[in-house]
Every structure is written in structure tokens, then in C-alpha cells.
Amino acid sequence: MLFGYHWDTAHGEWAFALSILPMLLRGLLVTLEASVVGFFVAMVLGLILAVLKGARSRIVSWPATFITEFIRDTPLLVQLFFLYYVLPDYGIILPAFLTGALALGIQYSAYTSEVYRAGIEAVEPGQHEAAKALDIPPRRTFTHIVLPQAVPRVIPALGNYLVSIMKDVPVLSVVTVLEMLNVAKIIGDQTFDYLVPLSMVGGLYLILTLVASAIVRFVDVSLPKRGLPLR
Amino acid sequence: MHWVEFLKPLSLGAWVTIQLTVYSTILGAVMAFTSGIGKLSPNWLIKGISVIYIEVFRGTSLLVQLFWLYFALPIAGDWIGVDLRLPPVMAGVLALGLNIGAYGAEVVRGAIQAVSRSQYEAARALNFTPRQALWRIALPQAIPEMMPSFSNLAVQNLKDTALASLISLSDLAFKAEQLRNFYQNSETIYTIILFMYFGMALVLTVIMRALEHSVSRWRRVRK
Amino acid sequence: MTEPIIAFDKVVKRYGSHIVLDELDFTVAQGEKVTIIGPSGSGKSTVLRILMTLETISGGVIYIGGEPLWHERRNGELAAAGEAHLRKMRTQLGMVFQQFNLFPHMTVLRNLTEAPRTVLGLSKAEAKARAEELLQLVGLTEHANKFPGQLSGGQQQRVGIARALAMRPRIMLFDEPTSALDPELVGEVLNVIRRLAAEHDLTMLLVTHEMRFAREISDRVCFFDKGKIREQGTPDEIFGNPRMDRTKQFLRAVREGE
After folding, report:
1. Cβ pair B59:A205 closer than 8 A
2. Which of A178, B35, B148, C79 is deepest in the core (most CB within 10 A)?
3. Which residues span the domain enclosing A94?
4. What are the 10-residue block averages of pLDDT along chain B, 223 residues in total?
């Protein structure tokens, strides 16, 4: 029994599959929640890293670059374990879900910071020159000229990382987060049938990523390529 | 326990990680080329299989694939009466290789399609068969294009090997867990292996860059 | 009367609804040097590309040395040609491209030997000997081990000519061979083509805007417009005394540009 549902192992494979579907869908919900929270963290942290990396002072930019590389080149699983076991030693006690989402966010902030950098750098230098010639102050240049043009380029790449985050959520199962794969594994442990639950999880993932990718593509297509309109 | 004493057992784990990475990256490369080229095939069967493989392994989570191969496949084997129990090493290499191969396939396909049409025309004019044109003319020009992405995928693969610890493969992450359970020294142990992974990733990146350098000699010539 | 080496019989080429070749009748005799001139979009390059089997035809029949090119004789009837037949026919043709299309990842020598070794089955030594002979013909012997990226446009095109000749075709097709070159490099390529025309018995089909050159080496000049030959004759006839207004108009416009 899981989440209040019972599985049915007495009436053949299809009945079994149907009976565990609600449990897996609950797990799917957790997967989505973890993805969204992790994505938010990645977006915010990534922006901070991107700004720090672009700083003129090397005392700021070099450590930021090193940290980004370090995060990018080390496994999510180990980063997750680190947070889960080490944070309590420093008095930070988070529910497993948040620890997991935080780990996801940190791992992907290394990627999102690159996306931000690339998006900002892709805005033609001519735009900066024109802004300077028109005497627009640097901060306003950034918020009103660079940013609105960078956003349409950045959103599709970020969207793709959201889909990647969804595929990395099962790693959180090692710290007891009840996402889809964990649910399937528990069902398998107790019914000795791993094939049906795991196959269903695979199928649900395919549907999830297909839908999510389609949404990302839709957003990409409906964004004006030249930049967000400013009134 | 002084942290240096952790290094010996962890190094054994690191060696397993390296082997896992090498084998699965080789498998991944094979899968990437066969399915990437297969996706471009006019034969609908080859194309179909390639597309399905790529979509399934790119569209599902690696851990799900790993668990499926390790836990679910034997049960499917029972159904059809064949022993499909995979030892952890095999399940690990297979899952990692198939997964990274699907991502690599898109890189391969994209790079081949980026080769100018006029090259194929020149090949046709000289009476090369389409297969000869692919192998002798297109692929050598496509490979330098693939290298930067392959470099990223290789490092990604290295990181993914840590998941194999979850099916009891004695890699670096597994060894770390063992030590941690025994000595309760989470912070030190995890910090060490984070740096070990980082170090391995850097070495891997250097190797990939050297490879990239050697296959793109003809691109760097100047008049 | 010997059979023409190339014969177009009411050949049609369509791109969607756009007609590029309009029931074209065209013959070339063995060993003849024919230049095709005309405005862009008139179908000149398409003729060469169809001969080199880079494009299919929408109607009509083409004969090379009496054999149909895009068709095969099966049970006494003409059916669409299979790849094996096309490969057999292709051995008689060689093409030089406007953009050279050399293989950038191979040295000049390898560009010349790759096809003879792979397609014709020549040994390494045989292919190398043939390549060196051709490099001497085009004047590039000392560049054998360079990559195309290290050569000028004119040198690359000369390699392109050598590469096509390495397959010993009976018919050489030149698709605007100097149009992509800086003016000062045009001469070296034209010199090679001139030598080829003078010293070899090759049938040559040349599409070019170099009118003076065309007048010098051609046996016959064909003026193409809107998918058909409007006028053809000896160089003196076409350049010196064109009959049709369209031809005159075209030649006048080209002269003004020179």
C-alpha cells in the first residue's frame, strides 16, 4: 500500500498496472514539484554566478568561474549526498525534498550561468555602441536594451535544461524523496515485480519529456526573435 | 582518521570509475555513430529503429534505464524463459553507454548534415558510391565538428558513472559510501571524492581536447 | 556520319511548376569543344548537372555514346535507370565545379588519387603516378602535399581539373570554372583548359562568361535562353554575326560589362 492506494497482484499484469498507476502519478507529481523548485534555484543561482563571472575584478570572476567549473564537473549524486549529510552538521536541517531540489538547482546553475552569459554576449556589440552614442547610462542599457534581446535567446535553452532536470530527479530517490522511480522501486521491492512498475515509469517519462519539450518549443516559437517589445 | 588514509580505498573506487567511463564511452561512441548515421538512412527499418532508440534513451531518465536493465530485465527474461540477469558491471556499462549514445547520435547526425551538399556532388561526379562518400568524404569532415560536443558528453558520462554505485558497483561513489558508513566522516570523504571527480574530469577534458586537435589539423592550415 | 557522343532528345527539366529545360534537342560530336552561353536561369548549368547525373530529368531521353543515360533498355523498352546503370555511364564524364569542391581534409595528392584507387581500383603506385602526371599538366607539382586550404582559388581549380581528369573521362564538363575566381587568377585556369582543348581529344562542354576565351577554343557556341538553344554556330558566327535579336541583346549587355 502506498499513498493510500492498494496494488492488485491477484488479477494479472494489466490489473496490476492499472492499480499502481495512481501511485506512480503521485510520484510524478513529486517529480514535477522537485523539477520546478530545482529549476527556480538553478535560474537564480545561475544568474548570480553569471554576473559574478562577468565582473571586471578578477578577485570576483576567477573564483566564480572555478566554482562553476567545479559544480559542472562533479556528479549530482555526490553533491546531493554532500548536502544531505553535511548540512545538518552545520545546523541546517532541511526536509529531504528541499535538499534534493537544492542539489538539482546547484548542479544546473553551472549550466544556466553559461546560458545567461551566451545570451548576453550574443546581443550584438553594435547595440552597446549605439547605446553609448545615445548617452544611455550602463545600467539602463543593460535592463532596457541588452536584457530584452537576450531573453528570447535564453528561454529555449533554459527550457531544455528544465527537461533535463526532470530526467535527473530520480537521483533524489537516494535521499528518500518519493518521486516516480522511488515509488516504482518500492512497489517492486514489495511485490517482486519490477518489470511492470519500472516500464510504466519509463513510459510516463517519455510522455513527460515529450510534452515538456513540446511546450518549450511552443514558447520558443511564440517569442519574438528580435527581443521583447518594450512600450 | 587522517584524510590521507582514505585515499587508498578511494583510489580503488576511482579505478573502477575510470574503467566504467572508458567502456561506456566506447559503447556510447559506437551507438552514437550507428544510430546517428542510421537516422539518415533511406532504409525505413534502419531509420525507424535508430529513431526509436534515440527517442527512448534521450526521453527517459538514466537512473530509470539503469534500474530497468538491472531489476526489470531479469523478470522479462523469466517471462520468455531466458536468463537475462545482468551483473552490475554489465548493467552499468550498458545503461551508461546506451544513454550517452543516444545523445551522441544527435551530435553525429547534425555534424554529418552540416557537411556541404557540394561535397556530395563532387563525390558523385567522381563516381563514389553513397557509402564511400559517407565514410571517406563526409565523416572525416564531420568529426572535427562533433568533438566539442563529444567532449561535453564524455564528462557527462564520467559524472553519470556515480549512479552505478546505486546498483552496488564498487566505483568511487560506492567506496565513499562504504567509508562514510564506517567512519561517519561525511564532510571529509565527500570533499575528497568531489575533488577526485573534478580531477578526472579535467584529465578527460584535456584528452578530448588533444583528440580534437589531432583530427582537425587540416582545418588549421593557412595559405 | 559518326554518332554524336551526347544527344539530348526533347529533354524536359522541371522544378515544381518552373520549366528549366523546355524540350531541349542538343547534340555534341565526339571530340567537339562546345561552349554554352546565356543569361542566368537559362538552364546552362542544368544541362551539365543533368549529364553528370546530379539532377534527374522530367522528360525526354539523353544518350551518351548511343546509350541512354537516365534510362535503361529492359526488354526492349526504356525504363528509369537504376544506380548500377548510372554508375556505369558516369565513368565517361568528369566535371569541374564553379566552387572547386575539393575535399578539404585531403592533400592535393590524395584528392587526385582517392577516386582512382577507391572507384577504379588502381593500386597506390598507379594512382600516384597518374596524379603526378596530371599535376605536371596543370603546373602544380610542388603543391602535392598541401591541403586545399593552403592554395589560392586558381590553384584549387586547377587541382579540380586534374581530379576530374584522373578518372580518364571521355567527356569533360566545366561549370563556370572561373566565375568564382579573383580576376588575376582566371588566366592560369584558362591556360590549363586551353592546353586540354589543344592537346587532347576530349569532348568538352564549357559553360562560361569568358567570351573571348570561348571564342578562342570552341568549335561551336550555343546561346541558351529560357531552357532552349536559341542560336548556335561557330564562334565567328555567334560572336561576329549573331542572327537573333536576343543573342545580340545578350552579347551587347555582356560587352558593356567587360
Report:
1. yes
2. B35
3. 12-222
4. 81 94 96 95 94 94 95 89 90 96 96 94 95 94 94 95 94 92 87 95 96 90 73
